[in-house]
Design goal:
Distance between the termini: 34 Å
Number of helices: 8
Structural class: alpha+beta
Order of helices and strands: EHEEHEEHEEEHHHHHE
Radius of gyration: 20 Å
Number of strands: 9
Length: about 290
């Protein structure tokens, strides 16, 4: 699965309609009902292509999308169901209790459809959780299926998939050794912002006049607003301002992460070991 700056951690290719196609090398019967391991295996090995349309909302950032052309925001993503679920969890990321964006809601719906096409969802609950570190106020999740009855035996299995963000565990441990909690917070913030807005690609795209450049400016401003980046004048992505603009985001993210880590009362070493920015944990629960 590839990623582009335009949609952060989501892979993008042009496709026109919201159709879900599940492709497997070896078609298999749907699984479920007490077979959590089988379901987890299906998620990890079954590949699918999902087509969707991004729906950025005008007015939420002041960035307008003039002259939208047909298909400008149509995308397709391909990968294992676990990978697609992982990115759907990231697409639903929240800061505090507020979603960062609803622009990828179509993607989430397409992924749910793909999973339901491969896994029988009755007696099955699938939960994909992206949590960059324990007790994080930044994170996302997506759930498929209903909760199990309280009186049923539960079978559970888990699979881990990449989130699309850099793996920052080693950087966090090194930073913890030299700078303590502040270092861990900075490592997480740098990985988070670099994953959302890779500097080189963001610079190339944001300087243009296409719908894609408008979209990346919208996403950057949306995140800045949510993080209360108030420094004035706020750097812009155009005219080579990507590095400064990202620095502002990183400072705001680091401050939030620092508060979370200190509130958790974990040791510096435990905080660094708990960093999981680059992965999503998917838990499957089934019952008879």
């Amino acid at each position: 699965m590839t990623s582009t700056v335009l949609d952060g951690v989501l892979c993008l290719l042009f496709i026109s309609a919201a159709v879900v196609t599940v492709t497997t090398a070896t078609p298999r019967e749907p699984t479920g009902e007490g077979r959590a391991g089988d379901v987890a295996s299906t998620l990890a090995t079954t590949t699918a292509s999902v087509n969707y349309t991004l729906t950025p909302r005008n007015g939420t950032t002041g960035v307008e999308f003039p002259g939208r052309t047909s298909g400008a925001f149509d995308r397709t993503a391909h990968g294992t169901l676990a990978q697609l679920l992982a990115h759907a969890a990231v697409a639903r990321a929240e800061v505090g209790d507020e979603r960062l964006s609803h622009a990828r809601d179509g993607y989430s719906r397409a992924v749910v459809g793909a999973v339901r096409g491969a896994v029988r969802s009755n007696h099955t609950l699938i939960t994909a959780v992206w949590q960059p570190y324990p007790e994080s106020s930044i994170g996302g999740r997506i759930t498929i299926g209903s909760r199990p009855p309280p009186d049923r035996p539960i079978h559970a299995a888990a699979v881990v998939a990449p989130s699309g963000f850099p793996t920052t565990g080693e950087a966090a441990r090194r930073a913890a050794h030299s700078r303590g909690i502040d270092g861990v917070a900075d490592a997480v913030a740098e990985g988070f912002v670099d994953g959302q807005f890779p500097p080189t690609r963001t610079r190339i795209v944001a300087g243009g006049g296409s719908s894609e450049s408008t979209l990346v400016r919208h996403r950057h401003r949306r995140l800045a607003n949510r993080l209360n980046v108030t420094r004035s004048p706020r750097p812009t992505l155009a005219d080579g301002g990507v590095a400064d603009a990202n620095d502002h985001l990183e400072a705001a993210v680091a401050e939030r992460v620092r508060r979370d880590l200190r509130a958790s009362n974990r040791s510096v070493a435990a905080a660094a070991e708990g960093v999981r920015l680059g992965r999503v944990r998917i838990v499957v629960r089934t019952w008879p």
